[in-house]
Design a protein that fits this description.
The protein is mainly α and 261 residues long. Helices cover 71% and strands 0% of the residues. The chain is built from 8 helices and no strands. Helix 2 packs antiparallel against helix 3, helix 2 crosses helix 7 and helix 7 packs across helix 8. The longest helix has 64 residues. 38% of the residues are buried.
């Protein structure tokens, strides 16, 4: 039976597919860590209270990258090159979502509008990350090899999502509500397209590594297209709503250490 659990179990059990999965994940998390670190350094004076939270966000992403690399090291696997068509973070940037890397590499202070753009982009992508990790947590929270990593990353992603909701609501009260809703919608519609394309690319690479028959690959591709159709019709709306989270100031403390050596 084809299910999310059986599919990931198959990827987990094979060294080559597991190395590709962890390499893709580690690359994306490390990229997110760099982006958040640069944003924290360029926060305008009027929003300096936000800088430590952005830095904490970046530290968490860096930690996740180290965790995925440690999971490979634990199985004596080496990281593999990330195929460009599977690079979710870079493809989002190429589609103009979030803050351009050219801007982040400069030393010019960001504007409040830049922070709105950053937080709206993060709210959308953290929704995806939170849902994906919740799925893995449902099936693999007690797994002897990856369970602890899954639980830790899932908790962090939920904190990131809560932080985005709270900060965007604060900025909406400060008069940025229309900009926030516009940017959220643009980000969500672009993200679901990129997520579809990346999912298809990842499954194509996994299929070749694992020797999937054409029928299985076709069924998975059809499922990915069906998810996109739903998200394009209505599912994207879950990514643009804002509500005050139960956990307030979710990124108000120091980042937690990862011990996966």
């Amino acid at each position: 039976m084809l299910s999310a659990k059986s599919l990931f179990q198959e990827i987990l059990d094979d060294d080559a597919s597991f190395a590709l999965f962890c390499s893709i994940a580690a690359s994306g998390e490390s990229q997110g860590g760099w982006e958040n670190g640069r944003i924290a350094a360029l926060v305008p004076e009027s929003e300096r209270d936000l800088a430590p939270k952005i830095a904490r966000h970046g530290a968490d992403e860096d930690k996740h990258g180290r965790i995925f690399n440690a999971l490979m090291k634990k199985r004596r696997l080496e990281a593999v090159p990330v195929p460009p068509e599977t690079d979710y973070t870079m493809l989002l940037e190429r589609h103009g979502i979030g803050l351009a890397h050219e801007k982040l590499k400069a030393d010019e202070t960001l504007t409040v509008h830049d922070l709105v753009t950053y937080l709206a982009h993060s709210r959308v992508t953290e929704q995806r990350a939170s849902e994906q990790m919740e799925l893995l947590r449902r099936y693999f929270a007690d797994h002897p090899d990856i369970g602890r990593a899954v639980r830790m990353i899932s908790s962090d992603e939920n904190n990131h999502l809560a932080y985005c909701h709270e900060e965007l609501l604060r900025l909406a009260r400060a008069g940025h509500g229309r900009s926030i809703q516009r940017i959220l919608r643009e980000c969500a519609l672009a993200e679901i397209r990129v997520y579809r394309d990346v999912s298809l690319a990842v499954m194509d690479h996994m299929g070749r590594l694992l020797g999937w028959p054409r029928a299985k690959s076709a069924a998975l591709a059809a499922g990915i297209h069906a998810v996109y159709a739903y998200e394009r019709f209505a599912g994207w709306r879950r990514m643009v709503s804002l509500r005050m989270p139960e956990r307030r100031d979710a990124l108000g403390g120091p980042a937690t250490a990862a011990e996966f050596a």
